């Protein structure tokens, strides 16, 4: 097609996450659609639609230019035998993740892309479909290719993809009245986060965790190499777990799959139990290119166990901890904390020495208040879980938990970030302010306020995107909705047009598709405006809405197997029980100045 054309681009998040590139000319409109199939995650699709724009008896031919040449310095590819008309290449990773480890294989099968497509004289429009399958075994690749060919033959390729997305969106919706910009941002956050998680229908594929930028991309040093950090467990996980217990469990199963690597990490550091890596890939062995982070940023252990605790309180799914081996994670981390802690006879407290807090401007410090608090809570959860599973807990777990130092300045009535922190010194990101949420450390409103005020003034304005969401949650806890809203406004600088993609930093630099920032922003709404807190015996809530938001609707909250829709207004809370848990024993009452039992369909 040699005619001049206008180019437009679109992304449909609601009906199938389909990215389209449209070329419009006087004689024909050409639309290229790209999507990764939601139901079959190994399957990627490209469709070309030609639509005649004027009456003509002439054929219209469009030339296709394909630059698909798989290459990687990490994988050696070679051609394989064609499969059912599809081209096939296979590759093997050149270097194992650790000495003696296996080198994964990859198989790609794709349909042939012709040099031209022609709209015949009698046709007003025509559509062509092309598929690519990526898998780690030939059997899986061929099975998915067969499925793709069958879906194309029956006309169900796109409809099945759109149906899967529709089902997914029915499980969760966050709607805001009063701020269209906030609505768009929330849809974008949910869409990109869900796109990074596995299909809720597919239990066979191995989930490899979620990196800060989603799928690994970029060159050396870019977008964190696709490694998995605390970002997954602390920042992305809570907003997903509130709606999708299957996806939440997939995150935990990923961590369970890295137990052997975590055990090896602990042994190499000279400690017992499990030490989850600061940067994780497949094996669970430390893959961080800089040793200091893997050695000192040990709060990752508590971050992992907090996700397990959150899951148990949301679902009461003990099978995750028995057959699913979750208890090995919890007990292994507890053993690590006990062996890592040092007794200080002067203070009569256990210390955690030589650590790096979440605020990475500081390292080799003692008693990071965040690290010690999350360690204390993970030890307490280990004791609690052992009791529930009738497993005798070592007395050291409770002993260290009770006597682990939590730094506190009695005179200033605030929590210093670590021993020796000088109040007013700059910090990189949310750290101490996370004691209230998500850790849930009990403190007076005055101390919570002091922490927020002390660190808000000195937090790097160009720091990571997720920071201000945590400050906003803190102010919402104190009923300061307008102050929280002011801080949330800062997050919009990280949202890049036109498709609501987040950058790590507000100037557009850093990781692209920064899911960590999206997760923090989503939590500010889901756990800030609503006041949701996932607790041992209940789902607590304490809504606070800013003046410019008249209504917040959170649909599909999944608690103890029941699905609820929450409608929050300034002077009204409406809770609809959409679906009740199968087990009558799981049905809970809701305390609203009294007890109100909820039944399906009733408000």
UniProtKB/TrEMBL annotation:
<keyword id="KW-0326">Glycosidase</keyword>
<dbReference type="GO" id="GO:0005829">
    <property type="term" value="C:cytosol"/>
</dbReference>
<dbReference type="InterPro" id="IPR012341">
    <property type="entry name" value="6hp_glycosidase-like_sf"/>
</dbReference>
<dbReference type="GO" id="GO:0047402">
    <property type="term" value="F:protein-glucosylgalactosylhydroxylysine glucosidase activity"/>
</dbReference>
<dbReference type="InterPro" id="IPR005195">
    <property type="entry name" value="Glyco_hydro_65_M"/>
</dbReference>
<comment type="similarity">
    <text>Belongs to the glycosyl hydrolase 65 family.</text>
</comment>
<protein>
    <recommendedName>
        <fullName>Protein-glucosylgalactosylhydroxylysine glucosidase</fullName>
        <ecNumber>3.2.1.107</ecNumber>
    </recommendedName>
</protein>
<feature type="domain" description="Glycoside hydrolase family 65 central catalytic">
    <location>
        <begin position="201"/>
        <end position="423"/>
    </location>
</feature>
<dbReference type="Pfam" id="PF03632">
    <property type="entry name" value="Glyco_hydro_65m"/>
</dbReference>
<comment type="function">
    <text>Catalyzes the hydrolysis of glucose from the disaccharide unit linked to hydroxylysine residues of collagen and collagen-like proteins.</text>
</comment>
<keyword id="KW-0378">Hydrolase</keyword>
<dbReference type="InterPro" id="IPR008928">
    <property type="entry name" value="6-hairpin_glycosidase_sf"/>
</dbReference>
<dbReference type="GO" id="GO:0005975">
    <property type="term" value="P:carbohydrate metabolic process"/>
</dbReference>
